[in-house]
Amino acid sequence: MLKSAGQTTKKNLSELHGQVINMNKRLVERFESYTDPQSGVSSPIRCFDPIAAARGCEVKELDPLLKGMIARVMENFVKLTQKTGMLNETDRGDMPAWVKTGLALISSTYAQNILDDVVSVQPLSNRSGRVHFLDVQTETAKGNIPMGQRVFNALAGFYGRDDFTSHWISNEPIGAAGAAVYTASVGYTPVIPNTLRLTDGTQVVTDDGNGALVGSIAGGVNTINYLTGAINVTFAAVTTAPVVANYNYNIEAALQLPEIGITLRSEEITALPRALACRWSVQSVMDFINDFGINAEPTILDAAGRLIQMETLKHVFNTLRNAAAGGAAVFDNAAPAGVPYSFHIKTFSFTLTRSQALVWEKTQTIMPNKLVIAPDIWFIVEAQDGFVGESSVANDGIAGPRKVGRLTRHNIDVYVDPTYTNFSGTLSYKGPEFVSTSAIVGMYVPLYKAPIHQQGFRKDTALLSEYAIYVVDPETIGTVSVINV
Predict the structure, then answer these.
(1) For 354, which of 74, 184, 194, 472 is 20 to 30 Å away at the CA?
(2) pLDDT at 302 over 80
(3) Kind and range of the H or E run holding 380
(4) What is the residue range of 76's domain?
């Protein structure tokens, strides 16, 4: 079952996706139909690079969930600029050109950003908002596993054991120490005869298969009702520790089975800003237009926007690396004596497997599938069997981290960050659902652009981004490092 804000629902994750998509559907429709020929912005949610309208706009149909995220942050942008709620036709017509350009910047950022490939990006409707992730806990007690025990915990990994779903009940509490007579009922019935064992750690009482209790008992009633689980026992001496019961129950005949609940947990976060001022000469823009026929101002804004975007990526990558608690694996690049380097370099694959296994060992659920590395070890990753490179990695003039390929044998997407710590990499996880992730970025406004101000022959503006990072589970993040490069 799913829980949200302490209330249980029967919605599965597919229905949850549908709810999020439908919630933003109206906003998506409004921004999909938005067109402004004067500023070159047309259907911004569908455009791959609308800020570079002069160079043409490649049409790309986006995932419905991503469309909703783009529409939500566009609406946040409009709220900040016009202090109005939902956009209507009049708003669009009266919208100043710099607002329209700002919408294009937002769409461009989301369409080209690899951030959503590495972590879950969840839009915030307000500067302070909630991010969501999954948690799994017991809904009923079983033996010494209490109700509300985390089984698979998004914050700390695996808590479960091997007996929560079994017929064996281990160390179920029966009563406190300091008494001899106990009357209680076990939690799971019917009890299988000849399996009951009551003990305080010293005295031991068992059943004889016919409902009578034997062992360390005194006179009085010493029985068990296998059907109801009712127990009456008088120990031979006052107990010196709490009394627990170990027994088997008949799963097929049981009216109660152990239950787990899937909790959609939420955490409060607050978006913090990043800002950048831009200044340029009108004269230089005019010269550029005369020489090449291209207006340089959108390119200037695009470059500034990409700088903030790249710093955001760097911030996220550094946060993942600093939070990593899933284990560290080291690869020695120096080949052992007598081993050809061409053979040795491929053993880096074992280091990756080891790092994945360390995370899996701690979480019992997660095998990392995202790898961010420094450029100086890219050649090692590229040499591994099963590596498939990205055909689009080229000198395209776009700075910052990018996806360079995929390790098919490990099911890992590989990203290179030019500014990453030398000879190292970070493994993290992002699942198919937007709530299954090592970390979440709560995005309030990816890019807010102030009006362009002109004084004499100089123009200036400022860009601002507001977001927050929340590490869901440090143990789903591991590190790899290379020595002797």
Answers:
(1) 472
(2) no
(3) helix 378-382
(4) 1-112
Beta 204-207 vs 128-138: how paired, if at all? Answer: unpaired
Torsion of CA 12, 17, 18, 24, to 10 degrees: 150
One domain, residues 285 and 245: no
Q: Could you tell me if residue 145 is inside a domain?
A: no
- In sequence order, the β-bridge partners of residue 248 are 168
Stretch 49-69: mean pLDDT, rounded?
A: 50
Nearest of 411, 421, 391, 419 to residue 349 by alpha carbon: 411
Q: What is the pLDDT of residue 33?
A: 60
| Residue 347 counted as domain residue | yes
- What distances in angstroms separate CA 16 from CA 34, 59, 64, 259, 423, one per listed residue? 28, 28, 13, 22, 40
Q: Say if residue 254's pLDDT is above 90.
A: no
| Coil vs helix vs strand at 439 | strand
Q: Minimal CA–CA distance to 445: which of 464, 472, 425?
A: 464
- The predicted model scores a pTM of 0.60
Q: What phi, psi does 319 have (nearest 5°)?
A: -60, -45
Asked if residue 158 belongs to a domain, the reply is no
Identify whether the C-beta of residue 418 lies closer than 8 Å to the C-beta of residue 401.
yes
> Quick check: helix, strand or coil at residue 459?
strand
Q: How far is CA 282 from the centre of its chain?
A: 45
Q: Give the integer Cα–Cα distance in Å for 98 and 431.
A: 37
- List the one residue out of 193, 172, 183, 174 whose CA is nearest residue 234: 183
User: What number of H helices and E strands is found in the chain?
Assistant: 11, 28
Residue 365 placed within a domain: yes
Residue closest to 86 by CA, chosen among 95, 96, 76: 76
CA distance 50 to 58: 8
- Could you report the per-residue pLDDT of 423-476, keeping only the tens digit for each? 999 999 998 776 678 888 887 776 667 777 788 878 887 777 788 888 888 889
